[in-house]
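Problem: given the chain below (493 residues), write out its structure.
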Amino acid sequence: MPADLTPDLTHEHQAARDRRLSEDVGQVPQAPSTAPSIAPSTATSPAGRVRAGQPRKSRSCDAFDNPPRSTQVWKPTGVRRKEVLKALGIFQRATADQLWRMLRPTDRHDRLTRDTLNALKKTGLTRVETRLESGHQLWVLTEKGHKEAKLLLPKNVRISALRKLEYDDEGRPVQADGYDEHAAAVTSTAAVLSGAGYGTPLSWQTEIAHKLPYGYTQYADLTMRAPDAGVPAMLLEVDRVNEPVDELVDKLRRYADWFELLAPKADAAKAKAARGAAVHGFRLWSRIYPPTGREGYPPVAFVFTGKTAAQRESRMRRLEQAARTYFAGAPYPGRGAGITAVDYHQAVPVVVTELERITADPAGAAGKVWRRLGRDGWQTLSEALDNPDGERLYRVQLQEARRRQAERKAAEREAQRPVCARCGTKFTDERWQSVAQTSWRGPGDSLCGPCRQADIDRAEAERVARREAEEAAEREAAEAEAKKSRGLFGHRR
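Solution.
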């Protein structure tokens, strides 16, 4: 099970905080590097920045860290020394250009980074492993520097293996073989993303293991944590277009399998019954990586580099076709009711980009250089990871579907509303309900409320009139009988 690798920048090892590096060494800056960067490990300079050695507009001597044509002796600071040691501790090997873009993207050139590396070399903490064909020096930590970096790095950050210096039979140092192009691309990817504001060197990890129950361990080339940029966690695979697409699909399958693993002591029955975002609370990944802030599992990014643009484009399309099962999501229920939203809660968001595309864009990795598999067009990383057709759309469409359903039912009910047999007026809700509640039917049930009331009033008036007539007849009869009785008594006298 992978350990929790969340970087904690505020809790570095106490010994590293108390310990100071050796005294800063004064150094006259070397001649700026003019050799081109190795491909694909470096990026074109963003707007406003120039490579060391290139002509610049005239500015005051204190405008930059290292003004040109200056004889001023510059001393690398302890902060810069520490950040270089940490970065080499994580990435093992890097050029000054890569470290510049990763650590100090606001610097105008890589001279300060090169000077820092040379200062660390003088104190025995770094060394040049080899010189690349491009002329760039490849820097690594010495055994002393490796121990120093381990003290500086937080305990939850994995330090890379030490690159030991080898000697020939005569005891002379042997220069290492050529830099592995995949390792170069991995470091360059971290550099261009860090330069665009996606995390810091301490938020990167390399070759993190994701163990699967069937005995396989899926290693991520890079894991990025950049919550301030809206990407709490992302796994990256760097591909130099030199392995079968089926292998990339297998990587996605293994990531999906790992995301599905239950956390220790998780209730399997409750996990099976859970729906939507509640599912992730039972998964192992949620104990290791922070919440994504979006539907679905932590995103996986494929960074392609090398070969031709047409080959990279073909590769992305083939991956999109073959891996749809893992990133496509599932339809929400009720599609016949006008719901087109997609349920991404148990899908792997997959984005692709090209290192060449990133380096060519003026905005770098912050530009529209990402494409979400399943969509057309290039977007920013935040746009690509967002799900406008996901749960938010589902809620809107569900509310609209319920409104339409209510309107349809109201129309159907209105069509069934009784009409008065006398005046043709539709029954009110109250009249309709009163008629529906009676268990027997009379002639008045076909009449609306006013007509029915008019019949009742008329019947009542007739009843009153009959009663008054009967009472009047009774009074007349009584009076007649009284007169008759008085006439008989008067005759007897």
